[in-house]
Amino acid sequence: MRNTWDQFVTSHPKGSAFHTSNMVKVFQAAKGHSVLPLAAVDSCGAIIALLVAVKVQTLPAPFGRVSSRSILYGEPLCNEDPMSVAALAELVEIHDRRMSNQVLFTEVRPLCGPGPERQALERNDYEFQEYLNYIIDLSPPIESLWKNMRKSARRGVRQCERRGFHIRELNSREDVEQLYAILKTTYHRAQVPLADSSLFEAAFEELHPRGMLRLIATYEGDTPLAMDSLLTFNGRTFAWYGGLERITGISPFDYLQWYEIVWARCHGCEIYDFGGAGWPNEPYGVRDYKAKFGGELVSFGRYRKIHRPLTKRLAERAYQLGRAILAPK
């Protein structure tokens, strides 16, 4: 069944690393995560629809009960015919029945523009909301990709080169520990909960040997200044988790970002996906930063369904309190 599953994901135009059986194993091994993979098959046993939902709890008790949510890190997949759309709608309904008493809400995070999956989601009362992202088409020559970046990004890359920074690709468990240390600093500074280290350890064990996970860092000497994790699958490189040490007057992440774009193009990828750029009409510094690198601003949106509306206000208060607890002292 695993081979059949992955064959469907690979052949589907919207199939991503998040849909693969490998990623299912990663989420199964990660503390604070539980995964629900569902598939529908036709009379011949061929998959016609599937989804991968992950129950995520990032805040500790007593906030956990009101902070759990179900996330689909990629839209559910189906063929375009009516039978497949109906089958996907049934899968979504099964998901909702199983999750409604366990999570506050479900959020679907599409990686592509809306397609037949939107019908299945809206049949189950999911609300579509605009959400932004930047993606880079990697088909132009590297020289064109360089020119498409803003002057500030090109200047940042040159500054790092003059400073003597260099890029390393990371390939050991110790490197994962180093990545997590930088992520902890970055997420703590932003007052945003971070997944447990077991997520990254499991991803390294399961995805890295298969070329689906790359760990890359900017160094000054032997000191890592910025580190990033990339998911690569089916011609798409996805910026997953990244962090950096702040240095006045220079951005080691500029250097890292440009390296990743070049690396992705040279390794046959068609799309570099920045992994999200926030809600429209809301200030978001990360979006402003990502805009420097010449990508296309797109709105593939998100879908949400609140399973326990009466708990929503309590959950929001718990999250804000949790952020206050996590805030730098």
Present the secondary structure layout.
Elements: H1 2-11, H2 21-29, E1 33-41, E2 47-56, E3 69-72, E4 77-78, H3 82-99, E5 105-108, H4 117-123, E6 127-129, E7 133-137, H5 142-148, H6 151-163, E8 166-170, H7 173-190, H8 197-206, E9 213-220, E10 223-233, E11 236-244, H9 252-266, E12 271-273, H10 285-290, E13 296-298, E14 302-306, H11 312-326
Parallel strand pairs: 3-5, 11-12
Antiparallel strand pairs: 1-2, 2-3, 2-4, 5-14, 6-14, 7-12, 7-13, 8-9, 9-10, 10-11
Overview of the structural elements:
The protein has two domains: 2-131 and 301-326, Aminopeptidase (3-Layer(aba) Sandwich), CATH 3.40.630.30; 133-298, Gcn5-related N-acetyltransferase (GNAT) (Aminopeptidase), CATH 3.40.630.30. The protein has helices at residues 2-11, 21-29, 82-99, 117-123, 142-148, 151-163, 173-190, 197-206, 252-266, 285-290, 312-326, and strands at 33-41, 47-56, 69-72, 77-78, 105-108, 127-129, 133-137, 166-170, 213-220, 223-233, 236-244, 271-273, 296-298, 302-306. Strands 1, 2, 3, 4, 5, 6 and 14 form a seven-stranded mixed sheet that branches. The protein has a seven-stranded mixed sheet with strand order 8-9-10-11-12-7-13. A hairpin with a 2-residue loop joins strand 10 (223-233) and strand 11 (236-244). The protein is globular, with a radius of gyration of 20 Å. It is α+β, with helices and mostly antiparallel strands. Helix 2 runs antiparallel to helix 8 (197-206), helix 3 packs across helix 4 and helix 6 crosses helix 9 (252-266). The longest helix has 18 residues, at 82-99.
